Amino acid sequence: xxxxxxxxxxxxxxxxxxxxxxxxxxxxxxxxxxxxxxxxxxxxxxxxxxxxxxxxxxxxxxxxxxxxxxxxxxxxxxxxxxxxxxxxxxxxxxxxxxxxxxxxxxxxxxxxxxxxxxxxxxxxxxxxxxxxxxxxxxxxxxxxxxxxxxxxxxxxxxxxxxxxxxxxxxxxxxxxxxxxxxxxxxxxxxxxxxxxxxxxxxxxxxx
Length: 207
Prior knowledge:
The chain has helices spanning 2-18, 22-28, 39-50, 133-136, 139-143, 145-151, 174-178, 180-183; strands spanning 57-58, 64-70, 74-80, 83-90, 97-104, 110-117, 157-162, 167-172, 193-198, 203-205. The chain is an alpha+beta fold and 207 residues long. It folds into 2 domains: 18-125; 127-207, no CATH class. The strands form 2 sheets. Strands 1-2-3-4-5-6 form a 6-stranded antiparallel sheet. A hairpin with a 4-residue loop joins strand 7 (157-162) and strand 8. Helix 2 (22-28) runs antiparallel to helix 3. The longest helix has 17 residues, at 2-18. The termini are far apart.
């Protein structure tokens, strides 16, 4: 019986070391991840949000930052008027994975995503392959590929992870950059959205 209790206790410790909440990820992140936010500021932001206060905190550049959403697996906050972050906790075979999405608002919303262990060690193996312009082409777009690529040398795309469906949703923001008149030349040639599903190991494009 004693040995069984010890085994259960060790298993619980091991499991707890694999699991992390979005709050814990935010507050334990090294300064290199959020260089504009001191740990004390991050703790204040959590307190303000949990208390239902709309108070914004100041980052090191005197920009105003505040949390807009927070639960165990998902956290979103603005760093300034032109940038925002999402911390998403992904369930993995060998423990939780932190997905960090940064979105810059100019010239049109554009995101990048990076992955870390629960201890904030960078994960180098590819968990997501960023789609290029060719991956966004519709059937008509593939027939007019050279024209599309001449007008759109790169994509401007915003990312959003939905924990409920384990989906990473990518939205095409090129129209905001090119303007309606120029975008009308390639209207219907690029997908509006791409969806990737988390399978426990990596994100795969949903067909």
